[in-house]
Amino acid sequence: MNHPSPEEWIDFLYEEIDEKTANRLKKHLHDCSQCRAQLNQWEQSRALLNRWKIEVPHRPASLPAWMQWAAAVLILFSVGYFSGKEVHSAANQEQRLAKNVKAEIQAQLAIALQAAEAQWKQDVSRQFEHALLRIEQNAKQETAAVLAAAEKAHGEETSKIYSIIATLEQQRIADLSLLRKELETVALNAEDGFSKAQRQMIQLANYQRPATSIK
Amino acid sequence: MRGLFLAQISSSDEQVMWRVQMHDDATAFAELSQRWRGRIQALCTRMMGDPHRGEDMAQETFLRLYHKRKDYEPTGKFSTWLWRVAINICHDELRRTKRRNETSIDEQRGEGSSPVEPESLSDNQPDSTMEMAEEANLVRQALMQLPEMYRTVLVLRHYEGLKFREIAEVLGIPEGTVKSRMSEALTQFASCYRQTRSRPPLTVILDQPRSL
Questions:
Q1: Which residues of B touch A98 (CB under 8 A)?
Q2: What is the mean pLDDT of chain A?
Q3: Is A149 at the interface with chain B, CB within 8 A?
Q4: ipTM for this model
Q5: To 10 degrees, the CA torsion angle through B127, B185, A3, A18?
Q6: pLDDT of residue B31
Q7: A198 has pLDDT over 90
Q8: Which residue in the set A14, A52, A116 is minimally distant from B140, CB to CB?
Q9: Where are the alpha helices (DSSP H) in A50-153?
Q10: What is the end-to-end Cα distance of chain B in Å, rounded?
Q11: pLDDT, average across residues B111-133
Q12: Mutation target among A14, A38, A43, A54 for the B interface, most CBs of B within 10 A
């Protein structure tokens, strides 16, 4: 019988093979106990090899530039670029070169660190602004969501949540009515500001309590 | 300064390496180290049979990479070059160690390896964490028994998932040779594992201090 070569079997084992060849090999396997035994042994070896696992840290998909950069610096620290850690090399020349490489990298990193910090501050303040906007937009949605969640709950919890919300609501209304009074005062004291104050008061008057269905 | 923001995860290895080579960009180099350190360390640990030596060899690899950055061929794949450097460094160290005959029985046999009844190779699945650690240790020892050229191919294909064609490029040998070495590696590994598992208690006596 003509047996496939070990190379072909290895291709088959590791699935680096086209369908046509795979089918041919499968057919041979069906008819040949010798090759079946060989493949079986190799499969056993593979299964055993899998029992020695080494954790490889998985990198997150996307980080802001400054974070990636900081992580890279940390890696270099851990790899020992900035320490006096001895590297196992044969010649002294290698070691001297290693020290020069470290000094070189260190200087460049110091400069880049300053730039990263500046960029980071910019990014953070921009993100903060966006966050504030989102909070305002979401406020109304969140109130409704809280109420919906409360409706699902039972017992004392529910009434506690309702009372907290009611207190918050009252607080807001109180704040707004205070604001209203202040605006009225301003309007009375300054005629040219009157129309503006009037507009704002109309806006306040149009303010409605978010639709609630407290049961 | 532009290098700082160009060295992002969206850039290919080759693009980042270009910056290292053309501009001595240390930040770009740090990016590459971060991307590949885990896998290179895993490779070196399996080649050296020891996590500490593996870590040393990984560090050495990146050091040499930066040192030899002008040698990088921009038309080639970065990872091929990286694997080659790592393999060569492990090879040099293994040869140096062999010559000095530093490997103690400890290192060859693994500390405290307890004798296990010779059974059919993989009929029981290890349950507990300790059993798993013991199994891993046996695999480790068996791998270290393999001749280096078989171990290299086996680690690159089985653990790091390189295609045979890639391995051929890394090692500079024909693809057919890679495959025949692989088949031989799997065969020899099985017998090394059997040997390791059925080792007599001689190791225990030699490794542990006697209480007199």
A1: 63, 67
A2: 64
A3: no
A4: 0.80
A5: 80
A6: 83
A7: no
A8: A52
A9: 65-79, 92-152
A10: 67
A11: 56
A12: A54
Top residue of A35, A48, A86 to mutate, by most chain B CBs within 10 Å, is A48
% of chain B exceeding 70 in pLDDT: 76
Instruction: Kindly report the nearest CA distance between residue B14 and chain A, in angstroms.
Output: 18
The whole-angstrom separation of Cα B179 and Cα B169 is 13
Tally Cβ neighbours within 10 Å of residue B20.
Answer: 24
Of the candidates A7, A42, A116, which has its C-beta nearest B4's C-beta?
A: A116
pLDDT tens digits along A44-97: 999 999 999 998 765 544 444 445 555 555 555 555 555 554 444 434 555 555
Contacts of A157 (CB under 8 A, 6+ apart): A150
Closest CA to B115 of B205, B210, B209, B211: B205
Give the global pTM: 0.57
Q: How far apart (Å, rounded) are the C-alpha atoms in residues A80 and A65?
A: 23
Residue A9 has pLDDT above 70, yes or no: yes
User: pLDDT grade, residue A99 (50/70/90)?
Assistant: low
Place of tokens 């802001």: A64
DSSP annotation string for B94-157:
HHHHHHHT---HHHHH-TTPPP-----TT-S---SHHHHHHHHHHHHHHHHHS-HHHHHHHIII
